[in-house]
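If you are new to this repository, start here. Below is one unmodified record pulled from the training split, so you can see the exact layout before writing a loader.
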Amino acid sequence: MLSTIQRRACRSFLEVSRSFSTTPRWSYQHDPLLSDAQRLLAASQPPPPPSTPVPTPRVTPTTATTTPATTPEFFEVPPERDPVLHFLTTSVMDHGRYARAQKVISEMLLHIHTLTRSPPVPIVHEAIRKASPAVRVKSTKVGARSIVRPVALSERQRTSHGIRWILEASKNKPGIKLQLRLAKEMISVIKGDSAALKKKEQVHKAAMVARGALSGR
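And here is the target side for that same chain:
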């Protein structure tokens, strides 16, 4: 009995729900009064302006342009301890006063730069190189005779002879201070009118004569 009532109630509920789903819902579009009012309102309004298409921005592929890096200018700075300047400083040094000798060489470089308007360190290197001899003559006693023969010099010996001859020739230059006279002598060596160059030429001539005498025996 109860099951029969439940089946009938379920069937009636399904029929009612099906009827609601198939019945069209009310809409203002189906109302003739509302549809006529909407048509009149649309006719009274001006037509909308035509929509212009918005241009899309054109993306062009950009190539990465690299700007050349500016190379910074580097000035030629002498090393902290130049071997030639150190050798020259020790040659000028008197009674172990190395600080005073350094001051003399520094002021000499300043005088060279003032007189030539050029970097002074290359001038000093070139002057010492020009004044440095390649050989020296050595006298050897054989029995009752003395034989003079040429002897090649090492780089340190050549530099030592050149610096010593430049210091000796600087004594004849005008000036009270050693640094000024030494600067003028360095410039004279570069120009080719120094007494140190004459000394070098004499030594080379003596070496050539001694070599010729040995080869003639």
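Two things worth knowing about this chain: Residues 20-31 have pLDDT under 50 and may be disordered. Residues 132 and 162 are 4 Å apart (CA to CA).
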